[in-house]
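Batch job 17 of 40 flagged for manual review because the log was empty.
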Amino acid sequence: MSTQTAAQHRAEAKTSYNAFMAGCPSRQLLDRISDKWVALILAALGSDGPHRPGIDHEDGPRSMRYSELSRRLAGASQKMLTQTLRSLEADGLVTRTVTPTVPVTVTYELTELGLSLNHVMAGLKDWAEAHMTEVLAHRDAHHRATAEH
């Protein structure tokens, strides 16, 4: 019986993931990355979040302090933001850097893996923004049709 290296084991596992199977880890990952806060955090750290006129005009990913992320993600509770950032860090999508200043400075930044996901998520965000008018029209028509019955 031969033993596999870690790289061989990962390569074999990569071909065996199937998100249609209930216990597959890829299904858990899909569940995590489909969360709205994940998409918004990735967009913000990827410099695609809302920009302040004359201040934020960077054309690439950047690190952000927790307080800045919190301000950009209107409606996210402190608990939700903290939990989401921790899960993204655990998955290797975000790095957290603590600088021993007074007070302590904590910044977050996308990893290479996070950047690759950000490119995919940016396409979904762009699609949603481009097609929102059509979706709203369909929702309205559906609501009218079901209200008549």
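Reviewer: the log was empty due to a logging misconfiguration, but the result itself is present. DSSP finds six helices and three strands in the chain. Unflagging and moving on to job 18.
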